[in-house]
Structure formats: structure tokens, C-alpha cells
Amino acid sequence: QQQVRQSPQSLTVWEGETAILNCSYENSAFDYFPWYQQFPGEGPALLIAIRSVSDKKEDGGFTIFFNKREKNLSLHIKDSQPGDSATYFCAASAQGGRALIFGTGTTVSVSP
Amino acid sequence: GGIITQTPKFLIGQEGQKLTLKCQQNFNHDTMYWYRQDSGKGLRLIYYSITENDLQKGDLSEGYDASREKKSSFSLTVTSAQKNEMAVFLCASTIGTGGYEQYFGPGTRLTVL
Q1: Is A31 on the interface with B (CB under 8 A)?
Q2: What kind and span of H or E run contains A28?
Q3: How far apart are CA A88 and CA A14, in angstroms?
Q4: What angle do CA A93, A83, A46 make, to 5 degrees?
Q5: Do residues A76 and A89 lie in contact, with contact meaning Cβ atoms separated by under 8 Å?
């Protein structure tokens, strides 16, 4: 049973386009949603995170849109660059929860 | 800043062999984690520890043991390596538990012959 779902599994965009990655969850108690970025051969690194009291979070060219009622969120990568090519993981946890629950990831390729 | 070090980077073992993976962090974080990453399956929690000598099982703990003898280190043992558990094993640490940023090491890639 996958508590955090991501789509699409992979995505190719042209340089300068906006990449949109989707994430949905089942547990209404989840209140913290980080996105991690992972390059080949490296561990994941925190990219941007949102808490359920907010509906939008921006950091540089990355924006999270959060819909608590629909239990989904999306990560927008604006003006995508080849250096943004990586796998992106959506994760979730509940306050006092033991650990993060990760989605299966979206692999983004940005073509020049 | 701090760093998480995982050793070895690549681990090759025989089927049935007992294998140990090591993780060290210098963040002075209380909580440490072991995740397994299989292609297309995301990260799945094996064990975590909220303090020295504490161990908590994750969803994937069967076939693994863990040890947290010092605050800065967390070891994972594959008790009997199987070919279907070839994966990347990631260690992470955080200041609290669920709602805080986790910092990850570079991973250990396990190959079972």
C-alpha cells in the first residue's frame, strides 16, 4: 500500500520550460511535505518543503502548490535547466511521526 | 555544516553471507535512519534510532539487524545476503524525527553474487 504516490514516473522537458511533478497522499494526519532532489551516485538532498498550514511555498525557481482538501501537491520547476535533471522524491510525515514516507520518485530530464 | 559518511561505497558479497554497512554523522543529530532504495520503488525504512542504544524497526526490517553504540554512528547488518536485496542503502540523520529535514549520506551499493 503506497501512502505517497508520485506521477509521472519520468518527465522530459525542454530547457526553459516549466516541469510539473505531482504527488498525492492518503493519510490526513500528514502535515509536513518535503521534496528531495537526487543526482546519480548521491544521496537525496532537501530541495524545498511545505507544511500543511500553507498552500504555496517558493524558493528560487521551485514552487510547491499544496491542496489539503484534495490531499495532493505539486512541484513546479520554472525555467528548467539541464542541471535540474535529477530524480525528485515527494515525502510526507505526521507531527510526532517516526520517519518520512517517500514516494517512488519522478525522474526529470531537461533537454538543451 | 556537517557530513554523513557511509562505508563502504560498494559492497560485494556472496549469497548467505553476513554483511555490515557503517554510517557516521558529525551533525550531533539524535535520530539516525537506514533506508533501502530499489530502482522504481523509492526509499523504504529499514531501521531508525532516536538516541544512542535505541533501535526501532521500520517496514523492511526483516533480514536486517542494526546497532547504535554511539550517537554519531549507526550500523546495519544484512544477516544473510540474498540476490533480491541488491540495492542502494542510504543512511540519514535528523535533529528530531518526522517533521525535520533529513540529511543523507551518499549510499552503499550492495551486490550479491
Answers
A1: yes
A2: none
A3: 17
A4: 20
A5: no
Domains of chain B: 4-112 (2.60.40.10)
Comparing CB atoms, the residue among B44, B98, B104 nearest residue A96 is B98
Main-chain phi, psi angles of B34, to 5 degrees: -120, 125
**Residue pair A104/A17 in contact by the 8 Å Cβ criterion:** no
- Exposure class string for A27-37: b at 16+ Cβ within 10 A, else e: eeebbbbbbbb
Instruction: At B84, give phi and psi (nearest 5°).
Output: -80, 5
> Using a CB-CB distance cutoff of 8 angstroms, which residues of chain B are in contact with residue A53?
none
Query: Which residue, among A84, A61, A88, has the nearest Cα to A13 in the 3D structure?
Result: A84
* Cis omega (within 30 of 0) for bond into A82: no
Helix (H, G, I), strand (E, B) or coil at A89: strand
The pLDDT tens digits for A23-63 are 999 999 999 999 999 999 899 999 999 999 999 999 999 99
Tens digits of per-residue pLDDT, B60-113? 999 999 999 999 999 999 999 998 778 999 999 998 766 678 899 999 999 999
- Amino acid (1-letter code) at residue A48: I
* Closest residue by Cα to residue B84 from B47, B49, B25, B36: B36
pLDDT tens sequence across B6-48:
999 999 999 999 999 999 999 999 999 999 999 877 899 999 9
Q: Is A94 on the interface with B (CB under 8 A)?
A: yes
- Interchain CB contact of A9 with B (< 8 Å): yes
